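Predict the structure of HicB-like antitoxin of toxin-antitoxin system domain-containing protein.
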Amino acid sequence: MFYPAYVHSEHDGSASGFFPDVPGCYFAGDTLDRAFEDAKSALDAHFELLSEDNQSIPTPTGRFLPSGAGEQHAEWRTVAAGRHQYG
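Done. Here is the predicted structure for HicB-like antitoxin of toxin-antitoxin system domain-containing protein.
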């Protein structure tokens, strides 16, 4: 399954983001590429914790939220997650 991820790049090249379909799941990195590498790890770790707590794994909506005006250093991507292994 693919989850939409929103990421914002800073002027120093670092980046951070979140998954709108997965409340509380955030990621970051020293570069945009590292942030998206961390996104996959963050999503898997978040799903593992939800599973351990017998909570349901969110289903991705596939919808992207509109970016705010002036968000020149922001973008959307999708991140694959093995949701089936947790729920």
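The chain has one helix and four strands.
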